[in-house]
Amino acid sequence: MGHSKEKTGEKVDIYRDTWVRFLGYANEVGESFRALVPVSLVWGSYAVSTMYVTADAVDKGRKAAVAHGDNPGKTTRVAVAVVDTFVWQALASVIIPGFTINRICAGSLYLLGRTTKWPLPVRKWTTTAIGLSAIPFIITPIDRSVDFLLDSSLRKLYNEGEKHK
């Protein structure tokens, strides 16, 4: 995941270029297993994802602080980096995908109950498999949609033409 950047000398962003990125998907996995595990484990998966989002936002704030040194406007640029990263990650990594997988799983469990005579444990495991298999397909459309949303709204407030890197 970050090997090509390491070889070219580019700095590796631990939150976006390494396995740590997958911590942002913990809540989608939790939602996929909702039918099989106690709800406290699902909420725990949200805690993991939220810690990931917060850590990435703090990291981007620290990088912005270093990049802007003692220049005027440093505090504003750091705040923009933190807010932009936190809002983007919260929407794209936690809120929208969590809701999406929750609805996919709830809908599939309902439909399996109405259209099959499978025993409940089989329907629950099938629902979990459907939820897990949906994760790779929802990521890119959600990321692009959140980029569009922020470019059309929040980023206009602080004149940030592109997402914070």
UniProtKB/TrEMBL annotation:
Descriptive protein name: Mitochondrial fission process protein 1
Organism: Nothobranchius korthausae
A GO CC annotation given for this chain: mitochondrion
Family: Belongs to the MTFP1 family.
InterPro entries for this protein: Mitochondrial_18_kDa_protein
Annotated GO biological process: mitochondrial fission
